[in-house]
Write a structure and sequence with these properties.
Blueprint lengths: L32 H12 L19 H13 L18 H10 L3 H16 L13
Length: about 140
């Protein structure tokens, strides 16, 4: 007896979604108001100046990557956030390896620009202009 493709009932020959969503298009959460509320609360309530690492864990296809890209887009549109996304290593890894992957993905220029802008703002020195050491 032939086994019917599980998506045939929906008149689909193949899974209609990409494995990994396009990061810049993850600007909303459709059809999951409770998840949207949780993620928005996460962004709104994370004004703590302490660095944090959060791990998302769920079944394949549950929307983890979409949720992460949504958070990255929300955080990137606000000040004082530096969201960094990295995938968990294929092989078993300890905290050190995960932390190394995160450190490799840090945009150090963005950190320098933000720190300089905060310094200028705190000192009242006016418009920030970052010194480019390569110009000297």
């Amino acid at each position: 007896m032939a086994v019917e493709h599980p998506l045939a009932a929906y008149q689909l020959k193949d899974w209609p979604f990409r494995e990994v969503p396009e990061p810049t298009r993850c600007t909303f959460i459709a059809g999951r108001p409770k998840l949207q509320q949780t993620l928005d609360r996460f962004v709104a309530g994370s004004g703590n100046p302490v660095s944090s690492i959060y791990l998302f864990w769920a079944s394949l296809g549950a929307g983890k990557t979409h949720a992460l890209y949504y958070l990255i887009n929300q955080m990137s549109s606000r000040e004082l956030y530096l969201p960094i996304y990295t995938e968990y290593p294929e092989s078993p890894a300890g905290f050190g390896e995960i932390y190394e992957r995160l450190a490799r993905n840090i945009d150090w220029d963005a950190i320098a620009d933000t720190c300089f802008a905060l310094f200028v703002e705190a000192s009242g020195a006016g418009t920030p202009r970052r010194c480019n050491m390569e110009e000297r």
